[in-house]
Amino acid sequence: MSDPSRRLVTAAARLLADRGRPGVSARAVAAEARLAASAINYNLGGLEQLLSTALEVGCEEAAAWLARCEPQVARLPATPDGAALALEAVILAWTGEARDLALLYQEAAGTEVGARWTGLWADFWARTAERCGLGAVEGRLLHAAFESEALFQLSGWSPVLEAAALRELCGQFGALWLGASPGLVTGACRIAEEGAGARPEGSLAAPALRIADAAAEVVAEKGLAGLTHRAVAMRAGVTTGAVTHHFRTIEDLVAGAIRGQVSALSRVTPGGQAPATPDGFVDALFFHARADRPSIPVLSRRGLFLAAVRRPDLARAGAVIRFAHGGTTRDSLVRLFRVEADQGVVVAGVLARLLSALWSACAGQADPAEARAILAEAVIRRPLDRLGAR
């Protein structure tokens, strides 16, 4: 690769990580590389080819990073406990020391390069599971857990508290999905949820919830850049003053959009009501898992989170997105299964995260639909069988 090509690829990768695809233009890349914009066509055939090359190089760098990481992971206990420890340690390292690569990985989602990159992680977690005496399904569960938290640990809202919450989540995941030692419930997830304001469904008054629903629709259609008080007012059929009464700042509005998406997710359950039996709860979970693709709210929530990660003024809104997971399933989980309230916060959070990660975790499989069905069975039934019905 020539020096100008290398400079352009490096610049494109940096901007993709810093801004996301919507913020990357030929002019911006050329300015970052200190070259003329015409150099992009001359050296790499156009902006899209340049961005694809940047993702390819990122995938190669990730493979090298994993090759350095794997011998360190191999020093952990070769047990289910060691697998849970590996999950926590790798997530922290990937989103910390390799943060730019971790952000670039998120931008690769849905591309051919992204599928190959996902395959690298799938193979890594399969080897980790095998070394720890676990099977292929456990390797895929580890990969699904990684796909979820490798995204959400990018949050910069409260690093110490969020690291503590990650430990709690990995502990419960290890215990209920891998058969590791009982995970401690420290209260970190509950504190993070309360501190971020990621309240469960039903906490907003009806007028505010209608506006939050409208905000979620605006984001789904126009992205975060299109989310304004005026746009939401027009969608909701109310005045701009009514919107600002409930959501004073854009950060508040983003948080409201997330709650609107949580509300939308809850309303697509069969019958639209809380399950009355353990079997009904399981059926409701499988209803989501068997869809051909993630729901619009799930996709929008991911996009909103990545936008919030890149804007310090939206850090709290990003935390709302992260810790809203599980809010719609928690009450049913605690009511129908042998789990206490504080543990329910964590278990419902892990369950919701794993379900959201089904599609990305299976993207590189030969038959993604079949792979998703097998993984969904383990994601849903394992913890509930271990907890037991009331």
UniProtKB/TrEMBL annotation:
Native source species: Phenylobacterium conjunctum
Any Pfam family matching the protein: TetR_N
Chain residues forming the annotated DNA-binding region: 228-247
This protein's UniProt keywords: DNA-binding, Transcription, Transcription regulation
All copies of domain HTH tetR-type, residue ranges: 205-265
Top-rank taxon: Bacteria
Name of the protein described by the UniProt record: TetR family transcriptional regulator
SUPFAM superfamilies with a match to the protein in the record: Homeodomain-like
